[in-house]
Amino acid sequence: MTGDARNAEEAERERRLREQTDDGEIISKEEYTKRSRRAFLSFAGLGVAGYLGFRQVQNMEEDENIPRILRAGFDWNESVWSTLERDGARARTFSVDDREEIRVNGRHGLEDGDGDFIEVSESEAETWEIEVTSRNGSTLDPIPLAAVKSDFEVHDMVWEHKCIEGWSNIVHWTGVRLSDVLERYAADELSAEWSVLRTPPGNDVRREYSSAIENYTMRHAQTLLAWELNGEPLTAGHGSPIRLVTPFKYGIKQIKRVGSIEFTDDRPTDYWTERGYDLHSSF
Question: Comparing 49 with 6, which gets the higher pLDDT?
Answer without folding.
Answer: 6
